[in-house]
Amino acid sequence: MNITRLTPDPTGLVDWPTLSNDKKSVVTVGVFDGMHRGHQAVIARVVELAKQYDAFSVVVLFDPRPDAAHRYAAEHNGMDLPAGTPDPQALSGVDDRVRMMRDLGVDQVLIVRYTMAFAAKSYRFFLGQMVGKLGMRTLVLGQDAAMGKGRAGDVKAIATLAAATGVFELDVVDDRGPGQVRIPLDAEPHMPTEWGEPKDPTAGMGKAELRAWSKKHQARLHRTWSSTNVRYLLGQGRIADADAILGHAHAVEGTVVHGEERGRTIGFPTANLDEASIVGYLPVDGVYAGWLVDMGPAGDGDGAAGAGDARADDRVASDDKARIAAGSPWRWPAAISIGTKPTFSETTGLHERVVEAYAIADDWLELYGHRVRVEFVGFLRPQVKFDSADDLVAELGRNVEETKRLTA
Hints:
It is a single chain. By secondary structure, the chain is of the alpha/beta class. The chain folds into 2 domains: 172 residues, HUPs (Rossmann fold, 3-Layer(aba) Sandwich); 158 residues, Riboflavin kinase-like (Elongation Factor Tu (Ef-tu), domain 3, Beta Barrel). Helices cover 33% and strands 25% of the residues. It has a 6-stranded parallel beta sheet with strand order 1-4-3-2-5-8, with helices on both faces. A 6-stranded antiparallel β-barrel has the order 11-12-15-14-13-16. A two-stranded antiparallel sheet has the order 6-7. β6 and β7 form a beta hairpin. The longest helix is centred in the C-terminal third of the chain and has 19 residues. It is globular, with a radius of gyration of 23 Å. The chain starts with a strand and ends with a helix.
């Protein structure tokens, strides 16, 4: 797979590469945040058609996310989002999305820096570039896709353009999943109060009850397979439901740094992630079961790339696939904590939100300065204050046993 980063000029024009003088391409366009099942269906269709037509399979991937870029521009007099600005609402980093595209068999990924000048181009102009520069014969989109200035290029408009010009075909994929779900308009992350995986609060409701719940929470309908829904579920601690939509374990990546090292003193040494280095959406505070993957020493290709950081493809080109794979010697079950350590915060005076993972391994792991991947499998319990360190240790022991069960 070839990865090319492209930055529009000040007028929004992109110097698209010439993929071939005679071979056509099948193209899809988008952000693909989280690479959920809907995204995977679209990209799998691109690869399928490309093989059928003996064409290139091409993904045009926007970075940073348009939502983040437009929000920043609205707050900063139309300025572009600075390169490297953290995006805490992004489910996954660009490098993680590209890894999955590689695994799905994509030939070319063109990562386009999303600027306000680029966003101002019409969808007609953009698609003309795809045909003229990339040799696009087929465009594959999900049902709710929209592009171009003011998102005027929806599926209906693009279908009309394709029929009128006859220079490319539009193939629309059903990427919605099993219907729609209701999400509160002002949904904020909310830590569960009970032990164990949280349930859907609307499960078992009749129509009248559901209408009342929706009115109370100003709930709106969203596609089941959507990044918005995944983000909502992670913010409620509903890891199993989020992972089911993703089709894989939700993950974040970060660099291991020295923490308080209190875990060593109570028999549970943890890998502490540097908050500034974390890429990916953090679930709500709590204790989780999951996996810890050692991605190797952090460096020039450490995968910590933020919006517009050209180092993301270096990490993809390394041995990540072998490290992430099931059964990898760099992979361990882990009990994961996100929160402020309430049992000790009053004593230490430290109330910062931290992410730490206790790897269930035979030996102590020396991971300081390494890039690690933390994958979430299930919610175990909320963050609570224990009466003593002994009580905490006993609970951590139970968390470890439950983690072993969930990752078996």
